[in-house]
Amino acid sequence: MDKTITTAFMVIVSVVASVMVFNALYPAIIQSNNAMIIMKSRLDDRLQSEVEIIHASGELDGNGAWQDVNGDGRFNSFIWVKNIGASRISALERMDVFYGPEGNFGRIPHQNNAGGTFPYWTATVENDSEWNPTATLKITIHYNSTLASGRYYVRIVTPNGIEDTYLTGL
User: Is the pTM of this model over 0.85?
Assistant: First the structure.
C-alpha cells in the first residue's frame, strides 16, 4: 500500500512540475518566436529596399553663381534620389539627410522638425504619387543665404536604414 501511495504522490508531483515548467517556458518561447518573425520582416524590408542618389545641384546661374532661380526668397539645393528597390518607401519625413561641404557636413532636419530655422528639407515624388520602385524623390534643402562654392557631401538614409552617398560640386 505504501508503494501505491508513494507512486501516486510521485505522479501528481511530476504532473504539477510539468505544468509549472510549461507555464514558465511557453511565454518565453512565444516571445522568442515573435521576435524572430519581426526580425525576418525587417530583414525582408531591407533586402527589398535600395536607393540611389542620381544627381545633386543648387540654384546656380549659367556662371555658377548662386541665384534665387525659382523666386521663393531662399537659396535651395536639390537632390534627386531614385527608389531602385522592390518595395515602396514610406515615412519620408523620417529620413536622415546629411549635407554640407566635404568634411564639414551635418544632418539637415525635415521642415516639420526644423522649428522654423534654416536649413531644412522638403521632398516631393516627381513621377508617382508615392515613393514606389522606379519613382524619383526630389529633396529640396532650403537655405536663407547662399552657400560657398566647392564639393558638397550628400548622404541619404531611409527610415529602414538603407543609404547612399554622393559628392557634388557647387
Answer: no
